[in-house]
Amino acid sequence: MALLVRREYFKPSAARLEEAALRVGPGAEFYAVSMGGAPIGYRSVTVDTTAEGLRVQDLTVMDIAVLGTVQRTQIVVDVRLTRALRLRSFVGTFDAPGAAFRASGTVEGDSVLPVTIEAGGRPQVTRVRLQRPIVMTSLLPLQLAFGHQLAPGREFAVPLFDPMAMEERAATVRVLAESTLTVPDSARRDSAAQRWVPAHIDTLRAWKVAEAYGGVETESWIDRQGRVVRAVSPVGLRLDRMPFEMAVENWRRSAEARGAAGGAGGDIVAATAITANVPLVPHDLEVLRVVIGDAALAGLDLAGGRQSLAGDTLVVRRETGVGGPGKGPALYEARLPLVDTALAADLAPEPLVQSDDPRIEAQARQVLGRERRAGPAAELLVRWVHDNLKKEITISVPSAVQVLDERRGDCNEHTVLYVALARAVGLPARTAAGLVYLRGRFYYHAWPEVWLGEWVAVDPTFGQFPADASHLRFVIGGLARQLELLRLIGRVHVAVVGGGR
């Protein structure tokens, strides 16, 4: 009897998952995606059973309004799982006007996930070390439901892998509540309104789950089959499950009706901007003091280099003396390449920063000509990127090679190309992101920092060398690190308390 109890009630989690997952049947769920109460797209999640396990296809299509333009983006994640819901392989794609990104990988054993990145130029392969079996971010609800983890009051860590950020991180999951929700399960055509409306309402049992990932918390309601019922993201995106006709056909009709009139849901750049309490003249700012409120600052890169932090007061001092011989940073006159093992990561190519691509290397050499001094080289690269890229807001996963080909983009494209060109000639460079002041507001922004004996902020988007003091750095690093800015959107406040020359 003891052996029977042990076998039935103390099974390994993988065994329990495998047994529970046998109950997963094929099917599809559809969701309306809205922002600010207006529809901006749809999502579909399709589950198929295979001889080896499960296949889950996740498609999201959105029309995003950005500074007077509407950009249609499409994200597809196709995942193969074992019957124990362990990842076998995945393909993720991101498509937007003028930008394409594809990541794919197949788990080797239980310890390595080679990820191939295709975003212009040669495919790049990065190997992600796995400490334990991982869960894709989009598949967390399945894991929770079939792992018998949906019970109010429970809290635990789940290792997640995000194919867009190409990084494994631990998410903290809390089950907050249990309730009965109502959802439309069929639709009928309303000829008067010329749209689909609910024909029948169903009730179902669901659990409210809070998922904290990289400092960003998302709340969603999940049913006993591991399907999302509704969810809200920190930037205001909302998912609501409903029949295909209401989720997809209604959105298509509204998108056609809007046409050139613009997107619904409000402008995402304007919605995330922070109004300044006093007017500033950025090019005259050598020092800026601000108080940062209503945000958890732990884990952010606020202190160091040009920035100092005391409590909630941040002081930014623009680097002085940069731009003339015999003064300023110690390595301003140093000859390229700068070789320093401590800066190896800031000199090496990485996914989306293809500094070893022949086209990037050739362009960097052409820009510099015979110039080999680190400081003047850094400034030449700022001027070239600023003068040769069309300033255009884009929704993309920026790749340096694609940007070099397209010659357009916003601060993200300017930054990734600059960092790649700098590294190609042996000038250590990295990405910084945070806020920048522009015409009465602070906007989310990215810019490079280059090593000249100290880290110097530059801004090829605005053509600044060095960048003015209205650049408030919050994080340092690539896409995965920049995603942490999401936790600040809609929460952080900035109050200017001093500044000037």
Strand order of the largest sheet: 8-7-6-5-4-3-2-1-15-14-13-12-11-10-9
Q: Based on DSSP secondary structure assignment, what is the total number of beta strands?
A: 26
Count of structural domains: 2
Biggest beta sheet summary:
15 strands, mixed
Average pLDDT metric: 86
Spans where pLDDT lies below 50 across 5 or more residues: 1-17
Q: Keyphrases for this structure?
A:
501 residues, five-stranded antiparallel β-sheet, 2 domains, alpha+beta, 15-stranded mixed β-sheet, disordered N terminus, C8orf32 fold, globular
Any chance you could write out the topology, listing elements then pairs?
Elements: H1 2-9, H2 13-21, E1 27-35, E2 38-49, E3 53-66, E4 69-82, E5 87-96, E6 99-106, E7 112-118, E8 124-129, E9 135-136, H3 140-146, E10 155-162, E11 167-190, E12 195-213, E13 216-223, E14 228-232, E15 237-241, H4 244-258, H5 268-272, E16 274-275, E17 287-293, E18 307-310, E19 313-317, H6 358-368, H7 374-388, E20 390-391, H8 400-406, E21 408-409, H9 411-424, E22 429-438, E23 441-451, E24 455-457, E25 471-476, H10 479-482, E26 493-500
Parallel strand pairs: 9-10, 20-21
Antiparallel strand pairs: 1-2, 1-15, 2-3, 3-4, 4-5, 5-6, 6-7, 7-8, 10-11, 11-12, 12-13, 13-14, 14-15, 16-23, 17-19, 17-26, 18-19, 22-23, 22-25, 23-24
Describe the structure.
The protein is an alpha+beta fold. It has two domains: 2-268, no CATH class; 273-500, Roll (C8orf32 fold). It has helices spanning 2-9, 13-21, 140-146, 244-258, 268-272, 358-368, 374-388, 400-406, 411-424, 479-482, and strands spanning 27-35, 38-49, 53-66, 69-82, 87-96, 99-106, 112-118, 124-129, 135-136, 155-162, 167-190, 195-213, 216-223, 228-232, 237-241, 274-275, 287-293, 307-310, 313-317, 390-391, 408-409, 429-438, 441-451, 455-457, 471-476, 493-500. The strands form four sheets. Strands 8-7-6-5-4-3-2-1-15-14-13-12-11-10-9 form a 15-stranded mixed beta sheet. Strands 16, 22, 23, 24 and 25 form a five-stranded antiparallel beta sheet that branches. α6 packs across α9, α7 runs antiparallel to α9 and α8 packs across α9 (411-424). It is globular and about 70 Å long.
